[in-house]
């Protein structure tokens, strides 16, 4: 198996928060929405169904654990979970907490507004790392 490399666009658009058993956990650099991304550490995979069955199941476990955490921590009105990949071919799973009245509600967030940087990206990353510390298998960088 080749060494995993994060797609350059994801690296540019996100902060790495840490690792779960299968996935790298990223924070999107857009302060408009609480937005985390799971990236399975498997090179050359674009689609969930291309993962091994074991990895598919692990991705769903990690995604559900992250979704529960976001739901509990943020009390969002809706949690959007999506694997689009139209712009970035590397498989990645978006987890976006949505609130009635947010900048794009009720429509999708993609392409609606330019990114709004966090006032202190490192502090936001550290807050998420503290929250994620309770997830099984999470280790921060």
TrEMBL record:
Q: What is this protein called?
A: HIT family protein
Q: Name one GO molecular function term.
A: catalytic activity
- Domain HIT, residue spans: 3-105
- Per its UniProt entry, which superkingdom is the organism in? Bacteria
